[in-house]
Amino acid sequence: MEAWITTLLQTLSLPEYGLGTAFVVAFVSATLLPLGSEPVVFGLVKLNPELFWPAIGVATLGNTLGGMVSWAMGWGAHALIDRERGHPTHLRAVDWLERFGPKACLLAWLPVVGDPLCLVAGWLKFPPLACACYMAIGKFLRYLMLTWGLLWASQGMQLPGWLLKAAG
């Protein structure tokens, strides 16, 4: 069994499968399911440094689309969420979200609160395109900073010159 898992993980890290794996894991992790995509993206880039930008792009796309699934769930979940109306925490959160509008979706990358934030943005019927754009910006910056930072901090991994120039 252990050999099978090792073989599966090695196969999924191959460039021809790795980007698809990063997309699926990033998509699922942006829904309300508890899953983190950063280790997958980091592992893919660590094994295939030439896939840095494609991995960041694919993970951002998958995570943004997953966030939009949460947004759509919120759009259709009025009855469930309406039961909590009047609760002090609910009122503060809704007031805050209504004040910032779709720009609040920049924070969709945050652990614990990011996925429900997308759901509530849909429930409040914020414009989907604006929400998707703000989600994508926040998620892209998260993947870029986390992956770059982990690569920089990991032993034995030197960042390519072009990446150092792009980072700054």
Automatic annotation (TrEMBL):
The chain crosses the membrane at residues 20-44, 51-73, 131-153. Pfam families: VTT_dom. It comes from the Bacteria. Keywords: Membrane, Transmembrane, Transmembrane helix. Residues 52-146 form the VTT domain. InterPro entries: DedA_domain (IPR051311), VTT_dom (IPR032816). The keyword Transmembrane applies. This is DedA family protein. It comes from Malikia spinosa.
